[in-house]
Amino acid sequence: MKHLAIILAIITGVFIMAPKASKADAMKPDMENTLYLDLKDNCRVTIQMLPELAPNHVKRIKELVRKGFYTGSPFHRVIEGFMAQTGDPTGTGSGGSGQKIKAEFSNEPHRRGVVSMARPGDINGADSQFFIVLADSTYLDGQYTIWGKVTSGMECVDKIKKGNKFNNGAVTDPDKIIAITVAADVH
């Protein structure tokens, strides 16, 4: 009977197609490109990484996350109404992983919640430090590599201890990353 149905479908050109992916399936996050950033007070930030904008940066960030590089990193520079910067385990703002990443600029604007690479004066000098934009800062566009965006938990980012505005946002006794994981690795 099954063979007859197939033969009839071929002859008549009527095929039963598999159902299309639902909108809900399309809305599911890409767990391999999602980070969970855990902060104080059991506050979790979800970051959707953007490999279509910065594939080399996303790859490197995931490598560092999986090695535990960021755990305990302080938010050493936090400027109210601008950004919160982390990714230097020394907390001085001059440390990193020791591996520079060539810039991957895009047309994506630096809007609230965007995650972008910090870098020294060298345009290709980004390493491990990154910042989360607290307020639209489009004057940074085309100068820093955007590799992610906060999709939930921005209220947690807003609570990160702010730095001294007269000392370039340097933070005394800064808040730290409790944990950061790739969502696909969470069991």
Question: What would your notes on this structure say?
Answer:
- Helix content is 18%, strand content 21%.
- It is globular, with a radius of gyration of 21 Å.
- It is α+β, with helices and mostly antiparallel strands and 187 residues long.
- Strand 1 and strand 2 form a beta hairpin.
- It has helices spanning 2-12, 23-27, 55-66, 154-158; strands spanning 34-39, 43-49, 77-79, 83-86, 114-117, 130-133, 146-152, 179-182.
- Residues 4-11 and 14-19 have low confidence and may be disordered.
- The protein has an 8-stranded antiparallel sheet.
- The chain has one domain: Beta Barrel (Cyclophilin), CATH 2.40.100.
User: Structural class per helix/strand content?
Assistant: alpha+beta
Strand content: 15-25%
Give the % helix.
10-25%
**Low-confidence spans:** 4-11, 14-19
Largest sheet: 8 strands, antiparallel
